[in-house]
Amino acid sequence: MKIMHIETGRHLYGGALQVCYLMEALAQRGVENFLVCTKDSEIARVAAPYANIEAIPMHGDLDLLFPFRLSHLIRTHQPDIVHVHSRRGADLWAGFCAHQHKTPAIITRRVDNREWPPFARFKYRSYDRVISISEGIRQVLLTEGLAPKNVLCIHSVVKTENYQATADRAWFAEQFGIPVAAPVIGVIAQLIPRKGHRFLLQIAPQLISRFPNLRIVIFGQGPLRHELEKYVAEHHLTDVVSFAGFRNDMPVILPCLDLVVHPALMEGLGVSLLQAAAASIPIVGARAGGIPEIVRDGVNGLLVEPGSTDELYESIVQLLAAPSTARQFGRAGRDLVTAEFSITTMVEKYLDIYHELAIGNQ
After folding, report:
1. What is the mean pLDDT of the chain?
2. DSSP H or E stretch at residue 243
């Protein structure tokens, strides 16, 4: 079976990493992968061992040459299935191109932002199946008028074996200039408004008053970095809050954190939360999008109302003040990820869809 995957993101963030997991597991099962990506993308390098790479120019949603390039590739490789993993225009054009070549197409939707229903129905009508990475996203798609039988949920996953490192607090302290014994909160998300960094920063003075040695490390990059750094400086938080940027060594960083906080206003699912849970780290997250599907309130973390700084403060204090409860939540999180968010489960579900559509297209 030949699958053409389309991922136009330039960075190896959560979504692109999921595509890598999927293609690697498919290759192990004898599936031939073709990856269409942009020339300057990190996934082109990482996926090379288990996919044939077709790196093409891509200039955003309005690149009118993209459908012609993609159509040529579909005609050349003649895949059994076209699988679209990203937006940036690919979600609009790829289904149309596949339909023109009578090739079944599916799309994986990773974000929970709402679209104008008539546009959503128009965009997705060329796809045989629309896959959401959380039930929260699926519900959004259904409210936009998509047929329930064509919208399925397949959760994102994590390689749990990558997150079994023992905490090396001495190394962590040296890396980030943090006292070895200081409690550490980690935030792992793009620096964009909907991730809610501002809510944590607003309560930082209260948290410091309660835990004088507390440190907050913000991982990720994005357009809000300057604004957030300015806020930290203006509120005299530079000794407490640090910005670590994008790191590719999170498997060794996560075990050194006491708590991961994710106060997002919107979230498709949250791969960083899966990683934290796999590393046995308790989580405080907002009750938004697919977050409650990873963070089970009172089991492996605590949930708060989006934007509620009072609830956020109380939940963080509750876990930082009770290390035994935090450790219990951490162990429960790892058990949850192992049971429900495995790569094997994800791959088998996609293979079922691929085979169904390929057989139906014969």
Report:
1. 93
2. strand 241-245
